[in-house]
């Protein structure tokens, strides 16, 4: 059985990878720069030597890197998405035996794309934000590591969605105002995004980690559908039974995605290579997200 070192195990996607692995009997060593009981403290940005020590101690067959920084200063983004990845790649290159690397990239690396045309792995990346620029730099670093694959994850949604995401913020606001007539105010909902259930993402990660043989350098992970964000908001209101209104402000949206009007992943490659396909519809993702907000923690 393969041993997987899961870095970023306490984050949104990492928690679901860990849970999915436990349910299927896959051996996971969980690590994070924010450790908790049962999770090893490991900050990839602390230096290649520290990462190398961890690799020698754990002796994994696969490293899954779910760690990263989504917001903060330019220095924070560079440290978490570039320096950390450089240290990991350096340590893996010096390892005594080959170790597969599965690294989570982001749809933000693609940036603005042609409306109506699904994004393939060969689409030229044109990141629109500093976050996307730093994630693309991480992908470029991973591209030089033998046996590595970058999973470009589009917009994960589902239980545990953080408040930095539209679904997470809306669910939190609706739960906070449950039983009231208070309106919920958000930024513009004019864009369309590829929304994929986080548990399906976790399944894709584990499938890539355990796959025999070499993999392509980049694989998209998405639903293969572009969902208008207004439809996301309306669907969340329906699954919650809320009669409150979601009001759009004229302010700009998230820095990570502002300026990108439409995205939809072409997921044929990952289906062909790994036999993976998304299995969870958006209504289920939002229903499970809502149920989890009733009992946080």
TrEMBL record:
Entry-linked SUPFAM superfamilies: NAD(P)-binding Rossmann-fold domains
CDD domains to which the protein is assigned, alphabetical: SDR_e (cd08946)
Ranges where the NAD-dependent epimerase/dehydratase domain occurs: 4-222
Pfam families associated with the record: Epimerase
PANTHER family in UniProt: BIFUNCTIONAL POLYMYXIN RESISTANCE PROTEIN ARNA (PTHR43245), UDP-D-APIOSE_UDP-D-XYLOSE SYNTHASE 2 (PTHR43245:SF13)
Stated name of the protein: NAD-dependent epimerase/dehydratase family protein
Source species of the chain: Actinomadura litoris
